[in-house]
């Protein structure tokens, strides 16, 4: 099939590379000329495991190409995916749909023959109706079926998630699109991935409902962690005991510094706004957002407490900056609030992250950088483990202690065991675990 994808970011690029790998003929379009030029040279503008190899293979096989020319790419396509960003609109938290609508207008003028326009971007309920209206208004001749095909991939495991999804959701209002979208995903369908067809509005809602639920689940276990600390219970064992219940499930029950990233914060905000627009408040989600915001700031206070209540003039080493491991994505990462909270109280903060330092340099004024965990530990009054990259999972504790000015370890991801760290002479703080766990 001939497929065009507008937006070559995390979602568009992964979608393009995977669909090309299935054997489709894919053109990825981006308005960012530098990004397209780099991609044509085989350089990948984001860090995502295995993506570079997949892009190179499919570029080489002639199934994948990159362009800034949307009109040319769309003209021959049977399916056009919209995978541009839908960030929080400045000021009010609504999803900013201007990029989606701009693509819809351009697509309308270039389609030829029956074309499915599938929105992969996360968009509020009713956006598909507006995309259809925009296309019809811009080109009354266009024969288009607008589909909602939300994406559920996780950064850091995006290719695996795309190729082995739990489900594929496709919201349609035009039966002709069912055949086309089944053909797009046929290689996955053969692997038994459930293809869930719904109405378009329902598909749009499923994406927000799923993300908000996961954000709530994380926030629930984070609050439980605080209660466990106060009551002398161990949140990790609580999570395990809960998660073994199939009705609950063990995923997203890891207590930590609060959720971040490019999706949960903006999608929970947008769902609250959608609820307001429809006069149907999303109170659980509102509370989830508020708790999470407070939590990120509380993490800086936790570090300060571990340092004896004062960090002015002290050096704090930070391990990990991205919102989770295996990505370079710094959007809304809890590290931003934590580092700012420490800088505000007069600390010097030196951080190391395997992939996030380029983006962090732009985002956090005053933050300094080291070249490794051990480099960051040099002369530090405390080390804070913020993101659980694999390389932070089995650090040489004796070497760290020797390098540091004071042996204080604040482990916001519960990577280490208390007894192991204490044996090396560290004062150890983790999340929701009593001393000794
Ligand atoms: P991104 O910011 O990484 O990429 C968006 C790309 O679209 C950019 O490269 C931008 O230059 C390009 N673009 C913007 N306007 C354009 C236009 N008119 N024509 C061509 N290109 C244009 O965004 P992302 O993280 O890939 O997210 C895209 C959408 O997918 C969002 O709605 C997001 O919520 C959703 N989503 C993201 C993830 C994720 O993990 N990142 C997962 C599921 C869903």
Automatic annotation (TrEMBL):
First-tier enzyme category under EC = oxidoreductase
What superkingdom heads the lineage?
A: Bacteria
UDP-glucose/GDP-mannose dehydrogenase C-terminal domain mapped to chain residues: 317-418
Q: Where is the active site?
A: 263
Q: Which residues bind substrate?
A: 152-155, 207, 252-256, 260, 324
Query: SUPFAM superfamilies attached here?
Result: 6-phosphogluconate dehydrogenase C-terminal domain-like, NAD(P)-binding Rossmann-fold domains, UDP-glucose/GDP-mannose dehydrogenase C-terminal domain
Q: Name one GO molecular function term.
A: UDP-glucose 6-dehydrogenase activity
Please name the pathway: Nucleotide-sugar biosynthesis; UDP-alpha-D-glucuronate biosynthesis; UDP-alpha-D-glucuronate from UDP-alpha-D-glucose: step 1/1
Indicate which residues the UniProt annotation says bind NAD(+).
Answer: 30, 35, 86, 122, 155, 266, 331
The record's InterPro entries line, in alphabetical order, gives: 6-PGluconate_DH-like_C_sf, NAD(P)-bd_dom_sf, UDP-Glc/GDP-Man, UDP-Glc/GDP-Man_DH_C, UDP-Glc/GDP-Man_DH_C_sf, UDP-Glc/GDP-Man_DH_dimer, UDP-Glc/GDP-Man_DH_N, UDPglc_DH_bac
In the record, biological process GO terms are:
polysaccharide biosynthetic process; UDP-glucuronate biosynthetic process
Indicate whether Metal-binding appears among the record's keywords: no
This enzyme's EC code(s)? 1.1.1.22
Q: Which reaction does it catalyse?
A: UDP-alpha-D-glucose + 2 NAD(+) + H2O = UDP-alpha-D-glucuronate + 2 NADH + 3 H(+)
Record keywords: NAD, Oxidoreductase
**Which residues span the membrane?**
none
Q: According to its UniProt record, which protein family does this protein belong to?
A: Belongs to the UDP-glucose/GDP-mannose dehydrogenase family.
> Which protein are we looking at?
UDP-glucose 6-dehydrogenase
Origin organism is: Devosia ginsengisoli
Q: What is the lineage of its organism?
A: Bacteria, Pseudomonadati, Pseudomonadota, Alphaproteobacteria, Hyphomicrobiales
